[in-house]
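retry 2 of 3: previous attempt timed out while embedding zinc ion. Reduced batch size to 1 and resubmitted. Inputs unchanged:
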Amino acid sequence: MNPNILLISETGGILIAFLICFIAIPGIVIGICVPISVHRHKYMSFVELYSEAYWKVKEINSRYFFASIPNFDMSHTYDNNDFYPVVSCQDYLTYQLVRLDKKVVKALNDAEDNRIKYSKYWKEICSCQYGVFKNDTTGYNIDTLERYEKQIVEDIIKSPQRSFTITVTLKRVDMGGNYQDEKYKTFNERTIDNILSRIHEKRGSRFLDEEIWQSLVRVERAKVSNKLRFAVFARDHERCVKCGSRRNLEVDHIYPISKGGKTEMSNLQTLCHRCNVKKGNSIE
Ligand SMILES: [Zn+2]
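retry 2 succeeded.
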């Protein structure tokens, strides 16, 4: 074969491939997509202008406002095995509810409000009728029109949060921070409400419900992480602050947790085991 002919046919092949890739395929894609989009736009505009259901739902929507409820899910990681098995998810929730009290009470009320309002809202929504148009539908496929109508109307129907839960996740890691274990529990409104009402039974700063009090004590005690323990030892020069011993060192709450003391640097001291046992529950 003449090498020139081969060259021409090769060039022609490249040219054809070029035409297919950059002109023919995009042309076909545009040829299909543009009419679909024009068709879709035509139907959607008609629904938005003339559907009775669409206008009714918009009017109903303008009269109903629902509260948005924040998420209170919580998690905590324990870096030692002394506390992870002792603290339950409910203990941890109780501890946090003391702090979050008013915000959670509001969320519970908002969920209840949303439920009441939503049942009225939904009754009104259900009274809307599909397939009624304020204009002549000639030139439109009625099934397609109703399909678009349903889709557009369903998109604007409100769906507020009507229940409230809090999930507590507790994790355990080893000294190196590697994941070991986890437990979690989801609490419903009734349980949360029950814990809150027991938290509200107080005399001064003292919680009257013994179970609530014990939960708080367990979580407070478990706040002594390894990191905090070593920080207290370092501050006290790795010695018992009473007798100066360097052996069997422990972290002690100066003002005991059982009397309302908190786990924070200023309330922690280094004691040897012997001095700690001798001190017991007293304040020194
Ligand atoms: Zn000592």
